[in-house]
Amino acid sequence: MERTLQIASGHGLHARPAKLFTQAVAASGHKVTIARPGGAALNAASILSIIAAGFENGDEVVLTVEGDDEERVLEELAEFLTTDQDEAAG
Fold this sequence. Notes:
single chain, alpha+beta, four-stranded antiparallel beta sheet, 4 helices
């Protein structure tokens, strides 16, 4: 199951939101990938892959989740990426 969405964090997926995102992916226990449309799929549980990709505010990404209950996990991870984590942190 996959969804295309835009990164909402004002400064993109820099270290703090990347760490929180990869922790959420790992905690889900699902195989999750993230990619730019038409780009190579990255392991979404790898903080190094996420930071190296340099996802910026407004970038379009394709989030893919495989496993049981994938719709719920996709919704939770999509909500994370479409929320400005810099603003949410205060």
